[in-house]
Amino acid sequence: MGSGDERYDVIIQRARERLPADDRVLAVYLIGSYATGAEDRFSDLDLHLVVTDESIDWFEQHWADLLRDLAGPTVFCDRLLHLAGGLGITPDWLHIDLIAHSLTSFDRFQYDGVRVLFDRDGTLFPDGDQPAEHGRPGTPYWPERVIPMFVYFLGNLVTVLGRDERIAAGQGVGVVRDQLIQLMLAERGVRRTGGAKRLNALLSAEQRATLEAIPPAGSDPADLIAANQYICREMLRRGQALADQTGEPWPAEFIDATLAHLHRHLGITFD
Predict the structure, then answer these.
(1) What contacts 63, CB < 8 A, 6 or more positions away?
(2) Rounded CA gap, 175 and 144, in Å?
(3) Which residues, given as ranges, of the chain have pLDDT below 70?
(4) Residue 192 confidence (pLDDT)
(5) Is the torsion defined by CA of 33, 35, 41, 43 positive or negative?
(6) Tell me: the pLDDT tens digits for 196-231?
(7) How many CB atoms lie within 10 A of CB 264?
(8) Structural contact between residues 89 and 95, judged by C-beta atoms closer than 8 angstroms
(9) Model confidence pTM above 0.85
(10) What is residue 191's predicted lDDT score, i.e. its pLDDT?
(11) CA atoms in the 13 A half-sphere facing the CB of 246
């Protein structure tokens, strides 16, 4: 195992001992660094539950109480969007994520590396712990929503720059960059991912160099446009190649309309 914080080990042990006493809890497992043995002094704890379908609403309402039962008092708790659970911060700044999944929505292959603390019937994790693939490449696949979402946000550059909303335009650079990252994972065939703060291993050296070369956006409109142009060229080049490789349709009409919209209002090209 890695060199993590032993205080998290205490919380893990409490989860192992206390949660199985609740019949609604079908499995308890860790993802992230503490699942893969890569924990360090910067790691947080990602604790997940599988619960009966009938009880998911209860866990959605009471996850914070359950988290405090395991971790002690918190100075901050916040629900994570679209999930039955959230994050908690203790007074000495331990960071714990506690998420519950209903049985019917549970996918044991969703994460890259799982450490099983409890499996009531031995059926949810029949092979026990799942080792991390650490970004091992696989068969390229088509990320269905990535290109349309990218094109949509790219088109909104006209609106934010037209209103001189430079902060919003800067946020938009991050959004379109993240769509490029998702496309890169798909072209490399990486499906199982780890924590959001461990991206390097999932990308090739060429992909990392491409992302690190994105021009700094700042708040000057010319810099914001330059960053979007760079990302757009990469997105279209890689996306078209991946569509051809996977035999998926390329949304040419939407892309052409958006590029024309950008040229009409900003006087620049993005292809």
Answers:
(1) 79, 84, 85, 86, 98, 99, 100
(2) 17
(3) 1-2, 134-135, 192-198, 271
(4) 62
(5) positive
(6) 556 887 899 999 999 999 999 989 999 999 999 999
(7) 9
(8) yes
(9) no
(10) 76
(11) 20
Within its chain, how far is the Cα of 145 from the centroid? 15
Domains of the chain are: 6-119 (3.30.460.10), 146-266 (1.20.120)
pLDDT of res. 107: 87
| Residue 42 CB partners (closer than 8 Å, separation 6+) | none
Which positions ≥6 away from 158 have C-beta within 8 Å? 261, 262, 265, 266
User: Which strands sit side by side in the sheet containing 25-31, from one edge to the other?
Assistant: 76-79, 84-89, 95-102, 45-51, 25-31, 115-119
Strand segments, DSSP code E, in the chain are 25-31, 45-51, 76-79, 84-89, 95-102, 115-119
> What are the structure tokens assigned to 6, written together?
């032993």
**Residue 78 — φ and ψ, nearest 5°?**
-150, 135
Token pair listed for 2 = 């890695």
Q: What pLDDT is attached to residue 3? A: 77
Please provide the DSSP assignment of 185-226 as one string.
HHHHT---B--TT--GGGS-HHHHHHHHTSPP--S-HHHHHH
Alpha carbon distances (Å) from 52 to 65, 105, 120, 206, 265: 19, 10, 12, 44, 53
Helix 56-71 with 6-18: angle, nearest 10 deg: 130
Q: 224-246 in b/e burial notation, b at 16+ Cβ within 10 A? A: bbbbbbbbbebbbebbeebbeee
Task: Give ∠ CA 267-157-190 in degrees, rounded to 5.
Answer: 120
Tokens (6 digits) for 215:
């021009």
